[in-house]
Specification:
Belongs to the shikimate kinase family. Pathway: Metabolic intermediate biosynthesis; chorismate biosynthesis; chorismate from D-erythrose 4-phosphate and phosphoenolpyruvate: step 5/7. With 161 residues, the protein is mostly helical. The chain has one domain: Rossmann fold. It is built from seven helices and four strands. The chain has a two-stranded parallel ribbon with strand order 1-2. Helix 2 crosses helix 3. The radius of gyration is 15 Å and the shape is globular.
């Protein structure tokens, strides 16, 4: 969350002349509800089921870049599906950058709504620790880049084609 998946994904898709899918937007369109509404009505478990189904659907698509939510790789066998069907990138900027971006974010994010800076920092630290085993399975890991651009990513992708 806040690492730049959607922003970089759009730019990368444009540069490579591929389609772009933001998984959360895809889920919202397929379910005619916002992510916050799905969380409110079905809880995180209901959302994760819908997320899994959406990943399975788009796994059959070709020529695209997908930006998933931060939790997507961590449930069910999602990371394995993602790795089987494409090249996965784990964007890992420093925690302080994530905190700043999320505090400024205009998006309503159910998992962090109403958290103070300290609570948000603790939440990010705890989640990164819990999710590390899944994130570390990514094909490409890019650490400590504050302002990651497409040109920073392309050399990694070339190695995996």
């Amino acid at each position: 969350m806040g690492c730049g998946k959607s922003t970089l994904g759009r730019k990368l898709a444009q540069r490579l002349n591929l389609c772009f899918i933001d998984l959360d937007k895809y889920i919202e369109e397929r379910n005619f509800r916002t992510i916050p509404a799905i969380f409110a009505e079905e809880g995180e478990d209901g959302f994760r089921q819908r997320e899994k189904k959406a990943l399975e659907e788009i796994a059959d698509f070709e020529n695209l870049v997908v930006a998933t939510g931060g939790g997507a790789p961590c449930f069910f066998e999602n990371i394995d599906l993602m790795n089987r069907t494409g090249v996965t990138l784990y964007l890992a900027p420093p925690v302080d950058i994530l905190v700043e971006r999320l505090l400024k974010s205009k998006n309503e994010r159910p998992l962090i709504k109403g958290k103070s800076r300290e609570e948000l920092t603790r939440f990010i630290d705890e989640n990164l620790q819990k999710r590390a085993t899944f994130y570390e399975k990514a094909s490409v890991i890019i650490r400590d880049k504050r302002n990651l651009e497409v040109d920073d990513v392309l050399p990694y992708l070339d190695k995996h084609q």
